[in-house]
């Protein structure tokens, strides 16, 4: 996969590209990431990328020509995404969809915005990362790249496989425990020490459902639950009804 970023701050991406899983994916050539300085596509002697808005008013607008030239040098077929709070909110499903693309172009907005002709004629899709305002699309571009790159084949090892991720099945992940078995008097749930893999899988599924029900009930409504999941959910709801199922009941305090 190739990702091209169009930005007036390409340096912002350096530490992001030089560490951890993203660095590993670049070294393996699973992904090729190029951050382009928009100014390099401005042909006037001042390398102007923005200008005053027609009609007056505050702020500057990104000019269409440099963005156009920057996008046109990127190979086809390409998906051109403009990062803006106007866009559809990014989610795990969108990350999976993008992970299938050959060429992804991320245009980072700045200032008051970008000339409308870019949005209408050049951009395939507008994406936001949530309902708040940032100064530009650079951090959203990193958010999207991180979510997408970890889904590419062979980027994650078996240990941190995407199958266990929160949202993989539309649910939040189950709780995790590591040594020590007892910490400040709080014990690890006994089932995890039992060695009974069937029981452990059932516990994890149930706790994944419980986390989702308690923290993100909206996700439960959207999730594809099988009859077994529905039984577990009914158990959880009965426990909540009885006032059980709080963490005091699940982690034995010694
Ligand atoms: Cl993609 N851009 C900006 N400027 N602000 C945002 C955003 C994007 N997503 C949420 N807020």
pLDDT averaged residue by residue: 94
CATH homologous superfamily classification of the largest domain: SPOUT methyltransferase, trefoil knot domain
The ligands found in this model are:
6-chloroguanine
Percentage of β-strand residues: 15-25%
How is this fold's topology laid out?
Layout: E1 2-7, H1 14-17, H2 20-27, E2 32-37, E3 50-51, E4 61-62, H3 64-72, E5 79-89, H4 92-98, E6 103-108, E7 113-114, H5 116-121, E8 125-128, H6 138-149, E9 182-183, E10 186-187, H7 197-215, H8 217-222, H9 227-241, H10 247-250
Helix pairs in contact: 7-9
The chain binds 6-chloroguanine (6GU).
How would you describe this protein?
With 254 residues, the protein is α/β, with parallel strands linked by helices. The strands form 3 sheets. Strands 2-1-6-5-8 form a 5-stranded parallel beta sheet, sandwiched between helices. It has a 3-stranded mixed beta sheet with strand order 3-4-7. The chain is elongated. The longest helix has 19 residues, at 197-215. It has helices at 14-17, 20-27, 64-72, 92-98, 116-121, 138-149, 197-215, 217-222, 227-241, 247-250, and strands at residues 2-7, 32-37, 50-51, 61-62, 79-89, 103-108, 113-114, 125-128, 182-183, 186-187. The protein has 2 domains: 2-149, SPOUT methyltransferase, trefoil knot domain (Alpha/beta knot, 3-Layer(aba) Sandwich); 169-253, tRNA(m1g37)methyltransferase, domain 2 (Trp Operon Repressor, Chain A).
How would you describe this structure in keywords?
254 residues, alpha/beta, Alpha/beta knot, 2 domains, 5-stranded parallel beta sheet, 10 strands
